[in-house]
Amino acid sequence: FYYLEYARVWIPDPEEVWKSAELLKDYKPGDKVLQLRLEEGKDLEYCLDPKTKELPPLRNPDILVGENDLTALSYLHEPAVLHNLKVRFIDSKLIYTYCGIVLVAINPYEQLPIYGEDIINAYSGQNMGDMDPHIFAVAEEAYKQMARDERNQSIIVSGESGAGKTVSAKYAMRYFATVSGSASEANVEEKVLASNPIMESIGNAKTTRNDNSSRFGKYIEIGFDKRYRIIGANMRTYLLEKSRVVFQAEEERNYHIFYQLCASAALPEFKTLRLGMKFTFIVLCDCRYKAASLSFLRISDSYQMGIFRILAGILHLGNVEFASRDSDSCTIPPKHEPLSIFCDLMGVEYEEMAHWLCHRKLATATETYIKPISKLHAINARDALAKHIYANLFNWIVDHVNKALHATVKQHSFIGVLDIYGFETFEINSFEQFCINYANEKLQQQFNMHVFKLEQEEYMKEQIPWTLIDFYDNQPCINLIEAKMGILDLLDEECKMPKGSDDTWAQKLYNTHLNKCALFEKPRLSNKAFIIKHFADKVEYQCEGFLEKNKDTVYEEQIKVLKSSKFKLLPELFQDEEKVLSPTSATPSGRVPLSRTAVKPAKARPGQASKEHKKTVGHQFRNSLHLLMETLNATTPHYVRCIKPNDFKFPFTFDEKRAVQQLRACGVLETIRISAAGFPSRWTYQEFFSRYRVLMKQRDVLSDRKQTCKNVLEKLILDKDKYQFGKTKIFFRAGQVAYLEKIRADKLRAACIRIQKTIRGWLMRKKYVRMRKAAITIQRYVRGYQARCYAKFLRRTRAAITIQKFQRMYVVRKRYQCMRAATIALQALLRGYMARNKYQMMLREHKSIIIQKHVRGWLARVHYRRTLKAIVYLQCCYRRMMAKRELKKLKIEARSVERYKKLHIGLENKIMQLQRKIDEQNKEYKSLLEKLSNLEITYSTETEKLRSDVERLRMSEEEAKNATNRVLSLQEEIAKLRKELCTQQTVSPSVFLVQTHACTSRMDALHETMEKKLVEETKQLELDLNDERLRYQNLLNEFSRLEERYDDLKDEMNLMVVSVKTSEKSKAVHKCRQELESENKKLKNELNELQKALTETRSPEVTAPGAPAYRVLLDQLTSVSEELEVRKEEVLILRSQLVSQKEAIQPKVNNSQQMQCVVKLHCITDLSTPSENWGCNFLSAFTQLLLNFFRLLESQLQSQKKSHENELESLRGEIQSLKEENNRQQQLLAQNLQLPPEARIEASLQHEITRLTNENLVREMVLQEQARGLTFFNYLMPLFFPFPPSLPEATQIIHCVMSSNYSVCFEERNSSRKRNLVRSQLANNWYSLFIAQHFCMKEG
Fold it and tell me: Residues 223-247: pLDDT tens digits?
């Protein structure tokens, strides 16, 4: 069903692992080959596996590519996961992707700005799926689960060397330090971060795969108090790679601290270390070391200088050289500078150290021997001492870091961050790589146990429905390494042997495991190596050095010399060399109570120190791994899988082969399967009841907690597939616990708001009553004082008004009298002046009018003369132009009329010729009818004769057969009778009668068999008749095909006539007419041949005058003759119309219009043959249909324009609403970031519930509108289509028109005018379609 044309699939590719292709043809069951086209355009055939017949995996749609969570993909398989990671990493520059409960992190080999304070604040308080995948999201989820579930957490960072595990762990710790803060003023979170550069300096080194590879494993427990603030931390380390101190492979380096120390040799405080020379253990590089972190962790300056002295001493010890005395002894040159510097730095005696570097003490039961050692053994002892000093210094620094990070108050819970070496395989793999890969096997098994096996076992134990999933189990490989008689067991046993060697240990491995364990192999060309099939890859280990590294032998005399040092720090390094940690204690349910810490180091017993010291490195490492696994199993793990995109450390470069190897090894694909189908969250019934009691009403609480939880969950979560009820626990799908937490927070928030509302209302009412009483008292006194003041003001105002009245009256009267006198004097002077001016103005106006009269008359006369001249000139030009046009038109009309006459003469001749041809065809048709009737008469007589002869012959044949059979039977009976007469002479007449009766019965049976044969022969004849009928039908079909060919030729002739240029139309028409005449002759010949074939091949029964086939043929001939007569009449009508049109042509008809009329007349005369009249009617119907179609197109364009405008307006409204929503979201985000973490979580939950509620309301409205539209469409269907169409094409056209052009009309239900318009347009369409159908059916 899915493998159709254009479907995209993934096919294997040796270079790109998987390649995208497209199907060119549908896949059908049984096909062995798929036709594919690659993205680069190359076509290929993909052969399916004949055994499995497995189809290639399908590709996800483009809309799903780049998803944050791999479990959200439609098709979950390896190529989809690989492509999604590649798109996010290369195209989107995103290095983090979720895979269910696992975070996949791809190393970008580049610094990215995604780890700042603002990013940490953005992820703080958010759910894991609300924001983009990030290491901060995993850290926030662990922190939130620790606070919510009251259970310790672990973050397990795993991956290959160079995949970015250390950086991921560092950022996780930075997040905890930033979000939680410190519970005291000791700045514990800063100390936790300050420990990272110290540990990287003394424990990290450059390898061929990573410039900053961790050469030890560490598990950091960050402790929190009851308010979930950091109070301290503790660090545990695993298997420091001590051999790197004295040996580094090609293109690898020693630990960073040595290079940092040597690069700082020029500093004044480091001059006493004498670091200016060349050292054997390292190759110098440019780097600086900062001791600020050591000071911050409360390591004093003296201890810091002591650390640098010990490190410098290790470097100088590596330069100590030995000279051979003989094969069994060696010596150190006197006053050897490197050794003297080493002794000065370490504070030990030169003679003692030089002596014990070249000798060793052997103790027996009775006495002690001092034995010299060879140069090779001396060099090995020197290197072992250097490694031992560095390892003890490393442990001492770790202890002091733990002391600085130790919690001063009681620890409530912790979050552990595991950063341990990744899976390694080099050209030469030794004991260190074996231990590293063994640790990775244990971690992978823990991941499998947590994600796969424990999940399924938990579901089965709780008896909930679950399907078992097969997965890769690391236990066989772990058993091969650590089980009894395993590799480690055999190695420890060989170390205890007096003469044990690497070769004998290798032989023991071959004898024990070769051909017995599928995971153990032996190289072909080596007897000192073995191969183990790990979960990630096959690794070949060289046995050389395994015993020595496992023993970790250091001569006791050298240690005693160092312990006797005057240097204070050096003896401290060897006080407690081994510490034993107690196993992790956990409750049976897996939850650790908060009243105590889950993992604590136990104090070593007094008598165990010497015993522990004798344990091998492999045994100690195995015990530490068991403790680590117990710790991880007692916490809730969170997984971060780091992927190395390429081996060349190029930024944002993705190597598909390397990536898919790591994806297969780390179990990402299996995580996708089980995370999508499993139940990651689970609660006991009591825990669920205690947590979500606030969501239950009083009547819902029952004595049975299990039933109470079931009733509540059925109300809260409607989808029953989202949870399952086990025997003791409730299992939830991903995201359901967050949903319940959101409902709980809303319920608590509503209760808090109600309490606050009531208390605040009571307080405000009390305050209001008190304020109202005080305000009334104040108002009474104030209003009395204001009333008294107002009365006094009124009295004073009244007196002032009286005084002002008399004073103002006097002043105004005096002013009026002065102004009146001045005004009268001024008026007299002004009126005299104005009268004189008016007289002067009237005189000037009279004179100017006389001048204007004469000037305007002259200007008018000049303008009239110019205008008259221009008009006359324009009339001349226009009349000349019109005369030229008229002359040209007359010339064209003269030419066109002559041409028309010529064409008309030719047309009359052609019509007469066609009339004569029709008459000749009629005559031939009549003669053919007469011949046909004569043939039928003769044929009928002959057939009657033949039938009578056949019947007579049949009867004679049957009589002859019957006679012969009867003669034979009578002869046999006579012989029998003769025998019976001879034997029985005394037979009575009754017996003779019986025999005669038997003979008659036999005759009747023979008669019945003859009748059956006759019936069978008649059936055979009927079958032959049916065959002849079929042949006759085939001939009729051939005849109809020829007629259709004739019609096609006629249509082609019409198209050719229309498309040919005007100058060549007459030739093309004449040529087409000749072709039609030849085609007509061919049709006549074929008709004659058909008639001959009918007369020759028909059987008598079929072609008889009364037969059905004969009647059908006769009816067709009569219909053809009637059609010929009708078309003959139509030709005569066309001739009369042609004559009338020729007489009605006006002399001023345009030339182009005349040519079109001529072309139309040619077409009419050519189509006026007896078999072509239906084409004219069909053209008229088709023209009407095109007109209606154009009208529909116009209405459709208008409706589309209106709908486009409506959609534009709606989109503008949506853009405005989205802008408002965006502004509101930004305001909410800004408000949330200002709130504390608890209030921030509640605000985010409230905002999420509001958003979901709005979306549900919008979806309900959309569904209601769709239901309304569907109901109205069902209502309109019988109105627009009251009758079923007769043509399938008409039905399809009408449905297309309805669905595309009239959707706007359907939306306006109350618009009767538009409904009538649609109905009228549909009626026109039906009318045109039925006309076309009528003519098509009429012509077959």
Answer: 998 888 888 889 988 878 888 888 8
- Chain-centre distance for alpha carbon 516: 47
Cβ 557 vs Cβ 369: under 8 Å: no
Annotated binding-site residue? 726: no
SS3 readout for 798-811: HHHHHHHHHHHHHH
Residue 164 marked as a ligand binder:
yes
Give which of 665, 646, 668, 669 is closest to 107, Cα–Cα: 646
Across all residues in the chain, what is the average pLDDT? 76
Q: Are strands 729-732 and 723-725 parallel, antiparallel or unpaired?
A: antiparallel
Q: Residue 413: which H helix or E strand, with range? A: strand 413-419
* 181 annotated ligand-binding residue: no
Q: Are 1174 and 1339 in contact (CB under 8 A)?
A: yes
pLDDT tens digits for range 1030-1089: 776 777 676 767 767 667 766 666 665 444 444 454 454 455 456 555 656 665 666 566
**Relative orientation angle of helices 350-358 and 375-405, to the nearest 10 degrees:** 120
Nearest to 96 by CA among 17, 154, 192, 171: 171
**pLDDT above 90 for 787:** yes
The DSSP code for 58 is: B
DSSP, collapsed to helix, strand or coil, labels residue 373 as coil
| Closest CA relative to residue 416, chosen from 187, 218, 603, 641 | 218
Sheet holding 102-106, edge to edge: 96-99, 102-106, 636-643, 153-159, 413-419, 217-224, 230-238
Instruction: Give the SS3 label for residue 173.
Output: helix
Q: b/e for 749-773, b at 16 or more Cβ within 10 A?
A: eeeeeeeeeeeeeeeeeeeeeeeee
Out of 268-272, 305-309, 364-368, 1079-1083, pick the least confident. Answer: 1079-1083
Q: What is the DSSP letter of 255?
A: B
Task: Return the residue matching tokens 């998803």.
Answer: 67
How much of the chain exceeds pLDDT 90, in percent?
A: 22
Show the tokens assigned to 593: 């109570």
Q: Convert 640-685 into a string of H (helix), E (strand) and C (coil).
A: EEEECCCCCCCCCCCCHHHHHHHHHHHCHHHHHHHHHHCCCEEEEH
In the block, which residue shows the tokens 């290369």?
90
Higher per-residue confidence, 770 vs 995: 770
Identify the pLDDT of residue 1180: 57
| Token pair for 91 | 């195209």
Looking from the CA of 712 toward its CB, the CA atoms found within 13 Å total: 26
* 891 annotated as ligand-binding: no
- The terminus-to-terminus CA distance of the chain in angstroms comes to 40
pLDDT of residue 954: 78
Measured CA to CA, the distance from residue 142 to residue 221 in angstroms comes to 13
Residue 1269 annotated as binding site: no
Q: DSSP assignment of 495-528, as one string?
A: HHSTT--HHHHHHHHHHHHTTT-TTEE--TT-SS
Beta partners for residue 105, in sequence order: 96, 642
Residue showing tokens 């770790």: 398
| 161 labeled part of a ligand binding site | yes
Using DSSP, state whether 127 is helix, strand or coil.
Answer: coil
Work out the number of other CB atoms within 10 angstroms of the CB of residue 210. Answer: 21
Nearest to 313 by CA among 372, 243, 390: 390
166 annotated to a ligand binding site: yes
Residue 791 counted as an annotated binding residue: no
This model's pTM is above 0.85: no
pLDDT tens by residue, 728-758: 888 877 557 767 877 888 889 899 999 999 9
Give me the pLDDT at residue 1124, please: 59
Which pair of structure tokens corresponds to residue 383?
Answer: 């290197």
CA–CA gap between residue 392 and residue 314 (Å, rounded): 12
Longest CA–CA span in the chain (Å) reads 201
